[in-house]
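Give me structure tokens for this 747-residue protein.
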Amino acid sequence: MRDLNELIIRMTLEEKVSLCSGLDFWRLKSIKRLGIPSVMVSDGPHGLRKQSDDAKYTDINNSIEAICFPSGVTTACSFDRDLLYRLGDVLGQECQAENIAFILGPSINIKRSPLGGRNFEYFSEDPYLTGELATTYIKGVQSHQVGTSLKHFACNNQENRRMTASSEVDERTLREIYLAGFEKAVKEASPWSVMTSYNRLNGIFTSESSYLLTDILRNEWGFNGCVMSDWGAVNDRVAGLKAGLDLEMPGSRGTNDAKIKRAIKNKTLSEEILNESIERILTKIFEYVDNKKEMTFNKEAHHQVARQLANESAVLLKNEGILPLSANDCQIAFIGEFAKTPRIQGGGSSHIKPYRVSSALDAVSEVGCISYAQGFVTDVDETQIDLLNDAVELAKSSDVAVIFAGLPDAFESEAYDRQHMKLPNCQNELIEKVCAVQSNTVVVLHNGSPVEMPWVNEVKGILEMYLGGEAVGEATIDLLFGHTNPSGKLAETFPLRLEDTPAYLSYQVIDDEIYYDEKLFVGYRYYDTKELPVLFPFGHGCSYTTFEYHDLVVSQTSMRDDESLTLSFKVTNTGSVFGKEVAQLYVQDLTSSVIRPIKELKNFEKVALEPGETKIITFELSQRDFAYYEVKISDWYVSTGNYHLLVGSSSRDIRLQTKIFIESTKSLPSKVTQNTTLGDLMKYKPLNKMISSVLEIMGEKNDNDAISKEMKLAMIQDMPIRALRSFKGVDNYMIETLVKTLNHLIN
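Here you go.
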């Protein structure tokens, strides 16, 4: 057992400072005389982008061959905690085999808008789903004594001007939407490191925010790992160190090291702060080194894991009886360049050099009924008339047309945001013209974010593969031909058009600030509360079988907020084939005490069922599941009143529901002032009966026909106490005495 304190005492100041920044792009510094080795980190999060030994460290395109697993946008749709653990497990094995100490992931920023250029890396628009999947992913990786770096902390929800812009977010929204996923993962999975984002949060760079890195992350959530910067995200190194930023990556060629050293010598920075950061960094370095083991892995076996992930995560958006396809006595046209060269991942720092890419055409090569037409060119949004005509003719002469469409690399990438939600015009034109001659048309999509579908009513089937990794071709064939029953559910809403999105009016960066004006109403929280039509709702996904939900039971219908409640129900496969269903539990606050979304996801479970089989699903709910973040007490608070428990197959397909009553055990701080209205006083239990009587007396109808009783009551309810001076002749002394008395009564 190493004594890290003794090791730190033996270090010179220069050695201590040196450990606070990277040696180069991917390695941490060593101190050979003290036995401190250099360890390596690697980009992730859906595979290893480890630089080859002979590559320049800034050459992101020169990396080792690795398994390209499906991206976060894809795996989130599995709604499967165990599957995300499996992904982490195989990544941890690969890290050990490739001598990687930390994989830089998972990426869990909330999808505030479909325009986010890096959305393909992120899990969801929902913080609960995000936190659950991140937690099991981290546990899987770290089961092999390899670290994760949970990123990007926090509110990096766009790419435009990400290195300077300030995300302007109110505290309640920050806690409920943008920090909740990080909180869950930190508290339950203990990631080895957390990576700060580039942006500022409410004016302060996240890499130098003591509010984020110390007050919340360490003191409130109990994080004991090291905090590292995103690459090049450091603004003021000394301020960052004081705030809790331990490790600067990739380093600054000694410039910031010199600033730290100078600050310690002139006593503007305590050396104890530096020592604490060094201890956190060394703890994780040696946790990796002391558990290092020789490991190999079979790339083909891991390729099959990638195939399983894609199979379990793909979402069947629409099926009017056309799927699954049959290879018997049926001529099928595969149309679109993505059938031959699929888009398997997004662009930027997460880009993997894949081991073996399978296309749909490769995977179906032995089926004689398949014909192929290119249809369009992916890297140019321009209709190629000859390719279009060939595709239309092939579709016309076939029994079924399967069009492989999607977004080209240039349409979405790290470093810039999308400008619209449209597919390339040439692809939309191809789909429309094929549908005109072939009524049996299916669209397979390869994209990292939602797209508009002007042809949605013209096609009979839509299979969303997202960015399905290197085995996407095999998985697509598995799903199209029914070898696997689709079971993915959308982890984000597909809006009808960009103008319908909640951040449409406030997504633009103005004067280096981004205003989160939609507040809590992100994704389905907005669409469902507003009852806005959508293309496909959150949690939606079709199957080749059907499921019935029944027999909802709750352990109690009335409870205190410090108690827990158990809810159970049954799901039966009422179809003729094996399938998996994702049952989702939402909570609706009926108290009207504060503004809240109409429903919020609070649990889910993926259940596998044979035809006719029934299984019981049980969820437990506790205080946090009903709470909102109350800024008055800087804590989570449950309002007294009724709540709906909603069980369904999507946010808009609720199958079962029940109502429960919860009594709060907390009291919010209350203060009556001269500006408190008479109506507000009714909210306080000790005053309710008295104020109601006063309002009734004051609201009695008089002989003035211009003022009805109802109008007078409304006016009185909104009347502040100070107005009694003007309308009832009460003097200042009496008003001051009344305010004091009322404060005594309610407190």
